[in-house]
Hints:
This protein is α/β, with parallel strands linked by helices and 629 residues long. It folds into 3 domains: 3-248, Glutamine Phosphoribosylpyrophosphate, subunit 1, domain 1; 259-448, Glucose-6-phosphate isomerase like protein, domain 1 (Rossmann fold, 3-Layer(aba) Sandwich); 458-612, Glucose-6-phosphate isomerase like protein, domain 1 (Rossmann fold). The protein is built from 20 helices and 24 strands. Strand 12 (214-219) and strand 13 form a beta hairpin. The mean pLDDT is 89.
Amino acid sequence: MCGIMGYVGSRSAPRVLLDGLKRLxxxxxxxxxxxxxLDRKLEIRKSEGRLENVEKLVQxxxxxxxxxxxxxxxxxxxxxxxxxxxxxxxxxxxxxxxxHNGIIENxxxxxxxxxxxxxxxxxxxxxELFGFLVLEAMEEGRDLxxxxxxSFVKIxxxxxxxxxxxxxxxxxxxxxxxxxxxxxxxPEGGTLFASDSQPLLPFTQDVIFLEHGDVAVATAQxxxxxxxxxxxxxxxxxxxxxxxxxxxxxxxxxxxxxxxIHEQPGxxxxxxxxxxxxxxxxxxxxxxxxGVDILKDAxxxxxxxxxxxxxxxLLGKYWLESWAKIPVSVDLASEFRYRNPxxxxxxxxxxxxxxxxxxxxxxxxxxxxxxxxxxxGISNVRRSSISRDxxxxxxxxxxxxxxxxxxxxxxxxxxxxxxxAGYLARERKTRSTSExxxxxxxxxxxxxxxxxxxxxxxxxxxxxxxxVNALTPKSTPMSGVRGFFFMGRGxxxxxxxxxxxxxxxxxxxxxxxxxxGELKHGPIAMLDSEMVVVVLAPKDxxxxxxxxxxxxxxxxxxxxxxxxxxxxxxxxxxxxxxxPLPRESQKIDPDLLPFVLSPVVQLLSxxxxxxxxxxxxxxxxxxxSVTVE
Length: 629
C-alpha cells in the first residue's frame, strides 16, 4: 500500500527519493511528501494528490534542496484522517520526523496518554503519535536508535517506520514489524530504504529484505542491523535480484497478471478517489458528473455485461437490491439483445466493459438509446467506444491492465457498483446514516486488508502455493485431477463463477462455478477422487448452509479446497486443503468479503497456470478486448 523511500549518502536526496516514490506509485496513494536534512535542519515538502505536486515544490524552492544528501519520503493512502496535506507524511514532531506504513492499533490509548502529558497532535493520523514517543525518549536522554526501539515496543500493529532527527543529522533508522521494508547499500556510498525492492534497482541488484523485529541503522558510511528487543547486531544476507529490463517493466513480477493482482489495492484506492467526493460529511457521495442524476432517478436497473464483467454485475445486484432496495436484473449482453426484453418506464440500463469496446455490450447500448432508454456505462478506458454509445460513463481507475485475464479491473468494477448501492441507499434513505458511515469506513479499509493477504509471506499466499503445488505435480501436471468445481452461496457465488473462469482462461482446466445449493441438483454425480471442489465459505450469513454442502462433497470423495476465516477450525477440519483469509477481513462488513475472496481465486489460477507452463499473460484463443460479436 503506502510507499516508503529513504536515503543517506552522497547523492542528491530529493532526486533519489522522488525517483523511488515514482516507482512505488503502483501501490496507490492520495498524498505524498519528502523530508530532507539540510544544514542540520529539517525541510519538509508534502502535498495531497499526485507526486508531481511535491516535485514542483522541490523544483520551485529557493533553498537549493538538491544539496541535501539525507532524507525520507512517502506516498500515503488515507486511513486515519482524510487525504489532506496536513495528514500526508512525513510527520514532524519537534526535531523528529518519520514516515510510516501500516496501522497502530492502540493509537487511541497512545493519543490519550500523550494529550494528558500536554502534547497536541497536528494531524488526524495514527502515524504522528510515534513521533511524540520518540521525541519524549530523546528528551529524556536516549539517542535516536534507542528512542526508536523503546518507542516501537509501545505500539501494537503490523507496521514499518523510518525516522530521522535534527539532533543526529545523517542518521536514518528504520524498523520492520509486518509491512515490508527493504534496504540496500549504495555502491557510491550510503544506504537506501524502500517498501519494496523495485525502487532500489537503479542503484543495485543486491538488496536486504528486513525481517520482523529488525532495526536498520544507516549512515553515509554504511548500515548495521539490530534486533529490536535486545539491540544486538544481527546478520542478514543480501539477495541478488536477477531481473531483466522487461521484468522491470512488470515491476519485478514474472507476469503482468501477477503484477496486476498485486495492484488491486491501488486500483481500489484510485477508483474510490475518482468516483467519490470525500470532502463532504456524507458517505457514498458520488462526485458530480452527468451519470449521477440518471442513476439517482432510476426506478429499476438492468446490468449488462460479458465474461468477468458479468460476474461483477451479479455481485452488484446483491448490493443494489439489499442496500438501496431497487429492483435489479442482470443479463449477458450477447443474450439480451436477441430476446426482445421488456423494459419498464423508469429503467436505467448499465453496460459494463473494462475495455469499453465489448461488441455485444455496445450493440445493446446503441439499440436502447435509439429507443430513448437511458443508458450508463462503466469502463476502465477513457474515450473508448462506450463513451459514445452510453448517455454517460463512470470510469474506474485501475490503470492499464495488460494481462488478458481481468483482475484489478474486476475489483474496480465491483467497487463502482458498491458505490452505486451506497449512493442510492443514502438518497433513498433505505439505510441509516450510521450504517452507511460504518460501511464506508470498511470500504476505505479494503485496500489494506487485501494488501495484507497479498504479502508474499502471508499465510494466505503460502497456503495457496502449497495447495497448488500438491495438486499440480511438475512431472505430470494433470495427474489425479480431472476437473474443478467452485462453489459458494450469496456473495460468494459470483466469485465462484469468476474463479472457474480464471482457471479455464489461463490454466486450460475444465472448471465450473456453482451456487453451492445447486451442486446436488445434478453436478454432484461428477464427484469422485479426481475432482477438486473449491468451497468459498467465509463467515457470512450463508456460512452454515455452505458448510452443509461441503459435507456432501466430502462424502463423495472429492478433494476439497476450503477458503474461509482463519479461525474457522470447524470448517477447516473438513477440508483437504485450507486457505485462510487475512485476519483483518474478519473486522469488515461481510458484504465486502467478495473483494477479499477475489485475489484468492485469482492466485489459485495463476499458480496452477505457472506450474502447467501455460502463457499466463497471453492465453490461447483469447483477446484483451472482445470487439466482435
